[in-house]
Write a structure and sequence with these properties.
mainly alpha; single chain; about 100 residues; globular
């Protein structure tokens, strides 16, 4: 199965008002970083979580750039969002998380 824009928004409706380009770009990036060899049946879940993390970071940074008063990221890397933290938990339970293509 593949993560789609509509499927992503069904799971994370909080991203509905945001530009589709941001969401689709995040899905594309996350799909490139998440391997079914590692996540198996949880691959789509991992893609959705990493996509949500990417969108959250981008929107937060956009808020900071346009002067939002509370657009700060409160952690580093994947710890910066709840989605990233959940992705890390999923990664830790994956069969060989040591070969995931980015720093967690």
């Amino acid at each position: 199965m593949t993560v789609t824009y509509s499927g992503f928004l069904e799971r994370f409706p909080e991203f509905t008002p945001h530009p589709s380009g941001i969401v689709n770009g995040a899905i594309e990036s996350a799909t490139a970083d998440v391997s079914s060899d590692i996540f198996g049946t949880q691959t789509d879940r991992a893609v959705r979580l990493l996509s949500a993390h990417i969108v959250s970071i981008q929107l937060s940074q956009m808020g900071v750039m346009i002067g939002a008063t509370d657009g700060k990221v409160y952690g580093e890397g994947l710890d910066a969002t709840l989605y990233g933290q959940e992705f890390k938990r999923l990664s830790d339970s994956a069969s060989d998380a040591s070969i995931i293509g980015f720093v967690v």
